[in-house]
Amino acid sequence: MTNVQQGFPKDFLWGGATAANQLEGAYDVDGKGLSSADMIAYIPKEERGITNHAMEISSERIAQILSGEFEARFPKRDGIDFYHRYKEDIALFAEMGFKVFRLSIHWARIFPNGYDEQPNEAGLQFYDNVFDELRKYNIEPLVTLSHYETPLGLTEKYNGWVDREVVNHFARYAETVFTRYKDKVKYWLTFNEINVLTISAFTGGGVVIDREENKLQAMYQALHHQFVASSIATKLCHEIIPGSQIGCMLARMETYPFSSNPEDIRQAQHDNQMNLFFTDVHARGEYPRFMNRYFAENNIVIQKEAGDDEILKKYTVDYISFSYYMSITVTTSTEGDKAAGNLFGGVKNPYLEASDWGWQIDPIGLRVTLNNFYDRYQKPLFIVENGLGAFDKVEEDGSIHDTYRIEYLRKHIEQMREAIADGVELMGYTSWGPIDLVSMSTSEMSKRYGFIYVDQDDDGNGTLNRSKKDSFEWYKNVIATNGAEL
Q1: With CB atoms 3.0 to 4.6 Å apart as the test, which of 73, 78, 329, 430 could cross-link to 15 if both were Cys?
Q2: pLDDT tens per residue, range 165-201
């Protein structure tokens, strides 16, 4: 009889995902240095473009910020003060029954400039405290080494990942944290949404793009350095932490053709290839051949050092993780209305609803994505970001009835269950923003994802008090029943 997995595996990892720069705060406490995220100012909604490209920054603007000439709010510097409230927040995650909590280590908290010879002990101790608190509740940490947190010192000295020397500094950082936390962390990720480097170079790699003559060349050279660094980190992780698992992370948005016109179909195929290129290198250990034409047509020549290809091939990832919020629909014609996206565009899909921010809501697309990933790589998968950013209303009695969030998550989890029945090997699911935090793309607080409400507005006002939304109890029951009750 054919064996079909019914429901979620017994050891399925349920939890939530965050990033240091969006929740920790304490940007200048205990020896921490500045990072790329600390330079991103809040941009009011009316001043943003449709794709929210608020994260690029010029050399002039950096100089103005550092000199104090440019005055603005920098919400990621303050986050939601997890740095001082982590025990309270982890207790709430434990109350929901989390099996895993995804967080990132802020590189500039460990090496303030990025290129320092010795690590900052106060920074190391902070994460020791966080991991100890998680262990108290039997919650596994899932740790991202680099989540849009390139130390500003590396930008100033090398223009970020464009310079090969940054690979060595990252290797020192990775070795430091693997050695320090080898008995506390077994699940790791290298670079968050690594493909974002080719969309927002400063966000993904601390690269100030106006310093580069050939912008595409600089982006893909920086990306190559991250690929090599990721493979080196994979090697180090396996050597230092026996039994550890380390993965890559992609911002994945399944791309559909707008019509059955072969030109639309080819455009969608091309866009999917360009997205999956990143996981091809991580999982297969080599650049796919279709990139040769793209590089040739765009005057891109990747500078490799001797041994790079061998490193990429030998040290591939153990699993593939990704974010999934929406799908994209593309066309080569002028038909279709533009659709919003977190960093991606496309046209509106007439069969889908959209979020408050215009993102196309497509639960079935998650099943499609899972099947396509597994067909392509046959490696374990981990959904490490998925959620609904929405406006939440606090009632007079303090309650928050976020039925829209529950509905969004329910439909996506249903499709995860279907994908598992399809034969997909899925390790776990960490919903994005289990607690409200500062938005990556817009630096807002009003764009809320959490099961836990944080009393802070877009201007930074509020008590920072935490309170439970209706989705808190719902997700608690999902975990308790291992996804049987949605």
Answers
A1: 430
A2: 999 999 999 999 999 999 999 999 999 999 999 999 9
